[in-house]
Design goal:
The complex is a heterodimer of chains A (192) and B (402).
Chain A lengths: L1 H10 L10 H9 L3 H23 L2 H18 L9 H22 L11 H5 L7 H8 L3 H11 L5 H8 L3 H15 L9
Chain B lengths: L1 H14 L4 H16 L8 H21 L6 H9 L18 E6 L2 E5 L5 E5 L3 E4 L6 E5 L2 E5 L5 E6 L4 E6 L6 E6 L2 E6 L6 E5 L7 E2 L6 E5 L4 E6 L8 E8 L3 E6 L5 E6 L2 E6 L4 E6 L4 E8 L5 E8 L4 E8 L5 E9 L6 E2 L6 E5 L4 E5 L1 H6 L7 E3 L2 H4 L12 E5 L2
Antiparallel strand pairs in B: 1-2, 1-28, 2-3, 4-5, 5-6, 6-7, 8-9, 9-10, 10-11, 12-13, 13-14, 14-15, 16-17, 17-18, 18-19, 20-21, 21-22, 22-23, 24-25, 25-26, 26-27
The chains are: A mainly alpha (192), B alpha+beta (402).
Chain lengths: 192, 402
């Protein structure tokens, strides 16, 4: 009877109000709930995809990296520590994969090491907004790009960035500072 | 900073591919189906329904699989090459162990849980005996790396490097081809020297014991076996066979007692001392492509193709029974080189035309009637070229220890 009750519970559709915490969804996913997995995907896909897109500047790579990161998360699901927040852990995977991809691309010589990649032009429609900001972002080293994206797109604190990237907080701060200096005009609010 | 936030968000939004989310969700769903915990016992209603369906299905299958009734297979083969119900991503390696993959310009390691790590830009790769390192090559350079891709040593050469193979047992030596020469280097990168002239298309094969006995084909196509440790740089030749035409692969049996020369039209089996044990032509029209001994050493998985029917099949060849072949699995298109799992229960069969890897269980096939049912994984090329405009199906896969 206990087994049948458990199976019935697993088969019941999971009601997922917006307030359900990630940890509860992870617990449900660990017990076999597909609904919980889809809700986690819905919550975190956009952030993961955009992060990968801004670090790599490459649409196809961003899709692959975000997808692979979710698969990595699924593989680690059974041993995931529910006391840890999911979001920084997932984005840590995304950012590190995006940095690896960017380094590998530079190493393969697909882009000259000393030139800004033309990714903004490649992946955007002609005349699309933000070619300047993408070009400026791509002029940064992948590690600097990652720090900027974590801070200003995902709103990570410098401490969370340091933890995600295994860096001293001072290094995070200096990368942020140098990155902002390079991004220059985009940091300033336009005058009225 | 608010402007920077707005600009980054808008730039990302305008560059997004709206279909990416749906594509990835499909993959994640399928992966979760594969990985999710399942109840250990079936509810009795589901059990009864499944039994009923199985009985009905068995009757249908029996009708469809009658002689001269290959219509279903043909339609599936022509209209959609590939196994149906293939998993869209590699989320675990059936049977455990790790894969070393050469795909496009890169070498990769796939862990048991399906996680992939790019070793670097190399055109070929081969495991060390216990999978603690890999020897990789690119252009004229031979390199040893650890599974994290960290370079342990690198050896620049004068000619293009290919087919490096790490000696089993102690792992003290590596054999590789460089231009038309067969060369030997220490496992620590020291003592690189020329051993002999070699046929350009055939990889050298170490005997699986620790005797540093190496087989290769010379420039005239003669299978040659040398003791590499003896008498200086050139070793001592133990035996040499008659010239064979079209040799593609040399494979020592895991028991060290036989050496198989896989020719395009003929299989030739030698004893360890050079005695010719068997020589068998392939069926008319068939061409041998690749082969691999089972880890227990009694049989050989042989991939053969037929240009007239454009069909390939994998057969199990019995080494103790005059190289007789038993069909295992066949489909349209070419198959790549098969690889056995370390425990010998699974066989990985690459299928480039379908962009799939098939995982077969030959022993299960032996117990059940009919063709082997593979576990298929799709989208293989894409998984080893994230973000690339052009993807290439992996050229080789080696399956190593857990």
């Amino acid at each position: 009877m206990a087994v049948r009750a458990e199976i019935a519970a697993l088969r019941r559709p999971l009601r997922l109000p917006g307030t359900v915490a990630d940890a509860a969804l992870v617990r449900a996913a660990q017990r076999g709930s597909q609904d919980a997995v889809e809700e986690l995907f819905t919550r975190h896909w956009r952030g993961a995809y955009r992060t990968a897109l801004l670090v790599t500047g490459d649409r196809a790579a961003a899709e692959d990296i975000a997808q692979e990161s979710f698969l990595a998360a699924l593989r680690a699901l059974p041993r995931f520590d529910l006391r840890r927040p999911l979001r920084p852990w997932l984005h840590r995977i995304v950012v590190n994969r995006a940095i690896d991809w960017s380094r590998a691309r530079a190493h393969r010589g697909e882009v000259a090491a000393d030139a800004a990649p033309d990714a903004a032009a490649v992946d955007a429609e002609p005349g699309a907004f933000g070619e300047d900001i993408m070009a400026a972002l791509m002029a940064l080293a992948p590690e600097q790009r990652a720090v900027i994206v974590l801070r200003y797109v995902l709103d990570f604190t410098p401490g969370e960035i340091a933890s995600a990237l295994d860096l001293p907080r001072g290094t995070v701060n200096s990368r942020l500072r140098r990155g902002l200096d390079t991004l220059g005009d985009h940091v300033q609010e336009p005058s009225a | 900073m608010n402007r920077l936030r707005r600009d980054l968000e808008r730039a990302a939004r305008e560059r997004e591919d709206p279909a990416a989310r749906e594509r990835s969700l499909r993959v994640v769903r399928a992966a979760y189906d594969e990985l999710a915990p399942r109840p250990r016992r079936w509810p009795w209603r589901a059990f009864l329904a499944t039994a009923l369906l199985a009985a009905v299905g068995a009757a249908g299958v029996a009708a469809a699989s009658a002689p001269r009734s290959d219509v279903g297979r043909f339609v599936r083969g022509v209209l959609g090459v590939g196994e149906p119900r293939a998993t869209p991503a590699l989320v675990r390696v059936p049977g455990g162990g790790r894969l070393l993959v050469s795909a496009g310009d890169d070498a990769w390691i796939v862990a048991t849980d399906g996680a992939k790590r790019r070793l670097g830009a190399y055109t070929g790769a081969s495991w060390s005996p216990r999978g603690m390192f890999a020897v990789v090559w690119r252009g004229r350079e031979l390199t040893a790396v650890d599974p994290r891709g960290r370079v342990r040593w690198s050896l620049p050469g004068e000619r293009a490097v290919a087919d490096a193979r790490w000696a089993p047992g102690d792992g003290h030596l590596i054999a590789y081809r460089s231009g038309g020469a067969l060369r030997i280097v220490g496992g620590d990168g020291a003592g690189d020297h020329r051993l002999a002239s070699s046929h350009r298309a055939v990889a050298p094969a170490w005997r699986p014991d620790a005797t540093h006995t190496l087989a290769y084909t010379d420039e005239r196509g003669r299978v040659t076996v040398v003791d590499v440790d003896a008498a200086g740089d050139t070793g001592v030749r133990r035996w040499r066979g008659q010239p064979l035409s079209g040799v593609r692969e040399l494979l020592w049996s895991p028991r060290n007692d036989r050496l198989l020369a896989v020719g395009a039209r003929r299989l030739t089996l030698y004893g360890a001392g050079g005695t010719l044990l068997a020589s068998r032509p392939l069926p008319a029209g068939a061409r041998a492509e690749h082969a691999a001994w089972t880890p227990r050493g009694s049989r050989i998985a042989l991939v053969r193709s037929n240009a007239r029917t454009t069909r390939s099949e994998i057969v199990l060849v019995d080494a103790a029974d005059d190289l007789r072949a038993r069909p295992l699995f066949g489909r349209l298109g070419r198959f790549g080189a098969p690889a056995w799992s370390p425990d010998g229960r699974w066989l990985l069969l690459p299928w480039p035309a379908a962009d799939q890897w098939l995982f077969l269980r030959p022993e299960a096939r032996a117990r059940a009637a009919g063709e082997a049912r593979p576990t298929a994984v799709a989208n293989i090329a894409r998984q080893f070229a994230p973000g690339a405009d052009r993807v290439a199906f992996p050229r080789s896969v080696q399956w190593c220890c857990p």
